[in-house]
Hints:
This protein has 216 residues and is of the alpha/beta class. The protein has a single domain (18-215), classed as Uracil-DNA glycosylase-like domain (Uracil-DNA Glycosylase, subunit E), CATH 3.40.470. Helix content is 36%, strand content 14%. It has helices at residues 18-30, 61-64, 72-83, 121-136, 149-158, 189-193, 199-215; strands at 42-43, 49-53, 87-88, 100-101, 104-108, 143-147, 173-176, 179-184. The longest helix is centred in the C-terminal third of the chain and has 17 residues, at 199-215.
Amino acid sequence: MAFSEKYTGPPPDCGRCPRLVAFRCENQAKFPGCFNGAVPAFGALDAPFLVVGLAPGLKGANCSGRPFTGDYAGDLLYPSLIKTGFAMGEYAARPDDGMVLTGARITNAVRCVPPQNKPIGAEMAECLPFLTAEIKAMPNLKAVLALGGIAHKQTVKLLGGRQVDYKFGHGHMHELGGLRLFDSYHCSRYNVNTGRLTDQMFEAVLQDIRAYLDKA
């Protein structure tokens, strides 16, 4: 994928998806103190590692304005990133907690919070150009971590792969588009509470990414 120096994410008031715009308006009335917009990525564009999530959580990133900040998923993601050297500081579930990413960037396949946390196909298609442009604007990118099946499918699609050739599975690794794509179950409350994903399982994937980048 050719590198492009320019990258502009969606504006907070992005109007591409009517259903998401309507939901945003509802949330602005219910939660006037929250961000309530298309959530920007977190971390530098020159990072070699990109985490791709599903979409902002209603009471997490949609409220805080920073990916995975303020919801359960962040309670697993950020301490694990700190432990594996991809972040520094202390995660306090606030965008002003002073935590910084080191060699990592975090984004979402869909930038606006969807009802029931379930984006539809048309919304994923509308947001895909932003993720494509973001990856093109990362000159040092070597590794991508897809959190869940939707993030995996969107990443495979933008990199030009066929889904049948790159199956999602926790701990899977794929060589695609000059990058290495790593898969993990999403660090959601449901996955953790049901035992589908443990802290150790998630950290093991991050350790694999760390080892890969250290050798690259």
